[in-house]
Write a structure and sequence with these properties.
Elements: H1 3-11, H2 40-51, H3 63-66, H4 113-122, H5 131-139, H6 142-152, H7 159-170, H8 179-184, H9 193-205, E1 221-223, H10 240-243, E2 251-253, H11 275-287, H12 293-303
Antiparallel strand pairs: 1-2
Length: about 325
């Protein structure tokens, strides 16, 4: 075993793994617990709604369009493509492990997954619909009516029940058992020496001050460009758009680093396509640290150990529309 690995192990305090939120090693990051499903029927309904494009005006865009579960829960675009080919205003964050975040959206304007789920449906740049029309579509489909009546006890369901079901499904989209999680739980062979040296740089440089907790991020709002300004053409104001406080301008929710190798391009404006460039920019702008090529490569190697087990999703077979279902019109002016 290398001297470095022995040093890391000596600095790590071993503790009994009693609760699933606890880590074996005494570091400011915890492993992701496996999901526990207590409402399987509601999860299945939420999955159907997540994949159903009829919640959009065009009948073409679903939640999965921007949060593609085959692509790390994102769409790998600078900004998402919305109704009538509209360009979204900001990079689409991953839906994976989003239940572990302090709030939703880059500016934190939604406190819960349920609140977030209703936003894109009525956003003209996203799904371009209204809540009322979305409910009209769902109520016209007998299988959906039956499911809502069984699960929620009413056939007179509304947007609250729809977003609740979607949120419950999204809570299952966690990615446990990454190699880093295995190391956190005590597996000394889960990471290579090179990756562990990247983790040490990540800690000693100060990255962990913002990227901590179970999600390695998502727990705070931070200004983009602390040491040096970040230059972008993206007009997003950040947290200030929610609080109205000028000091919050250009402060964004710290993104999770879980599965980060899958969720490019990076930052709120989607301007950076590689982890190498992202590490370089964050080091300089946030920490005042210029990494050499080897240091950068070590941190990137560590970040790739954060890819967890992806949710295994069986695509739902959606119920057919009926004669009463409002027709989509993707080309409406």
């Amino acid at each position: 075993m290398s001297t470095f690995k022995l040093t890391v192990l000596a600095l790590s305090t071993c503790m009994a793994f009693a609760a699933h939120a606890e880590s074996v090693r005494n570091v400011p990051v915890q492993p992701i617990p496996a999901v526990e499903i207590t409402e399987p029927e509601k999860v299945e309904l939420g999955k159907m709604l997540f994949f159903d494009p009829r919640l959009s005006r065009s009948g073409f865009i679903s939640c999965n369009s921007c949060h593609n579960l085959s692509m790390g829960g994102s769409d790998n675009l600078v900004s998402s493509i919305g109704d009538k080919w509209a360009q979204g205003p900001i990079n689409s964050p991953t839906v994976l492990n989003s239940s572990l975040n302090i709030a939703q959206f880059w500016d934190g304007r939604a406190e819960t997954l349920q609140e977030q789920a209703g936003g894109p449906i009525e956003n003209p740049l996203e799904m371009g619909f209204t809540h009322e029309l979305a409910i009209e579509v769902l109520r016209s489909i007998p299988e959906y009516v039956e499911k809502f009546e069984t699960i929620y006890g009413t056939s007179d369901f509304g947007i609250d029940e729809v977003t609740d079901a979607i949120a419950v499904f999204e809570e299952t989209l966690v990615t446990p058992n990454s190699r880093f999680d295995q190391w956190l739980r005590g597996d000394d062979d889960a990471l290579t020496d090179f990756e562990l040296e990247g983790w040490e740089l990540f800690m000693t440089s100060g990255c962990v001050a913002c990227h901590n907790g179970v999600n390695l991020g998502g727990t705070s709002f931070q200004k983009m460009g602390i040491v040096e300004p970040y230059h972008t053409l993206n007009p997003a104001e950040g947290r200030a758009a929610v609080t109205g406080i000028d000091a919050d301008r250009f402060s964004f929710k710290v993104p999770t680093l879980r599965n980060v190798e899958l969720t490019y391009p990076y930052f709120h404006d989607g301007a950076v396509w590689t982890l190498t460039e992202a590490v370089d920019i964050m080091g300089r702008l946030q920490l005042g640290r210029v990494y050499d090529d080897e240091e950068n490569a070590k941190i990137v190697a560590f970040l790739k150990t954060l890819t967890g087990e992806q949710p295994e999703i069986v695509l739902p077979i959606l119920p057919p529309s009926t004669d009463k279902t409002p027709k989509p019109d993707p080309w409406e002016e």
